[in-house]
Amino acid sequence: MVDAGVFKNSMKRMMSVQYDQEGVHDPEVARETMKPETIMIRIFDVSDWGALWAILAPVFRAGETYAFSPEITEDEAYRVWVEMPAQTYVAVDGADHVLGTYYIKANQPALGAHVCNCGYIVAEFAGGRGIASGMCEHSQRTAIALGFKSMQYNLVVSTNEAAIHLWQKHGFEIVGTLPEAFRHPRFGLVNAHVMYKKLKMSNACALI
Predict the structure, then answer these.
(1) How far is 125 from 100, CA to CA, in rounded Å?
(2) CA nearest 127: which of 195, 207, 197, 59?
(3) Per-residue pLDDT tens for 63-72?
(4) Nearest residue to 148 via CA among 204, 188, 75, 81
(5) String of DSSP letters for 147-196
(6) Rg of the chain's alpha carbons, rounded to an integer?
(7) How far apart are the C-alpha atoms of 67 and 25, rounded to whole Å?
(8) What single string gives the DSSP state of each residue in 115-158?
């Protein structure tokens, strides 16, 4: 079981990671060619919120990949993306512009707290640059370093085929399908998948 207070204190002592490589909600996640640049993933700072909300709002308003209300307020979004998770990260470029974000938290309390859950969003303008892959890899290393044994995505919308493909590429399996569990604004009631991966220490390289 991972204690949230210990989690946050531990993460503040850990360094960010840079990725020289090529949803999650990533509008162009199928394009996997990375532009020659360095993307850094670091812990969220309150000063990032304006840029972060500009990325989150269009995704939540669209209502196609997350179950949050399309009418979610900025304060409510801050609570679910920053305050409630154990930790929130942002992906930034060399000029510290926010390109993407993810959170990590225990999937269940107490006896289920050894399994973590993450949510990822990439900015519309930053798709196709490998940011979703980088955040997925970073989140797994973070989870392992903090004692989580596995990672679970609870509601991967079946119409989000690019995200499903990406998670499978990173070793996640569909362990269950929930019939008509998501009310899609264009397609009506659609299925949603539960995706799961047991984390391995061999993948836990140092976060430096």
Answers:
(1) 10
(2) 59
(3) 999 999 999 9
(4) 204
(5) T--EEEEEEEETT-HHHHHHHHHTT-EEEEEEEEEEEETTTEEEEEEEEE
(6) 16
(7) 12
(8) EEEEEEEE-GGGTTSSHHHHHHHHHHHHHHHTT--EEEEEEEET
pTM of the predicted protein model: 0.83
The reported pLDDT for the residue numbered 24 is: 60
Looking at the DSSP bridge assignments, the partners of residue 170 are none
Burial 87-121 (b: 16+ CB within 10 A, else e): bbbbbbbeeeebbbbbbbbbbeeeeebebbbbbbb
Domains along the chain with CATH numbers:
4-149 (3.40.630.30)
Residues 24/163, Cβ–Cβ less than 8 Å? yes
| Among 114, 134, 39, 44, residue whose Cα is nearest residue 81 | 44
- In this prediction, residue 201 carries a pLDDT of 77
Cα(134)–Cα(93) distance, rounded to whole angstroms? 13
* Dist. CA 45–CA 89, nearest whole Å: 9
> Which secondary structure element, helix H or strand E, spans residue 94, and what is its range?
none
Identify the residue with better confidence: 117 or 7.
117
CA distances from residue 202 to 11, 56, 140, 145 in whole angstroms, order as listed: 20, 33, 11, 11
Q: Is the pLDDT of residue 180 over 90?
A: yes
Q: Looking at this protein, which amino acid is placed at residue 99?
A: L
Residue 106 has pLDDT above 50, yes or no: yes
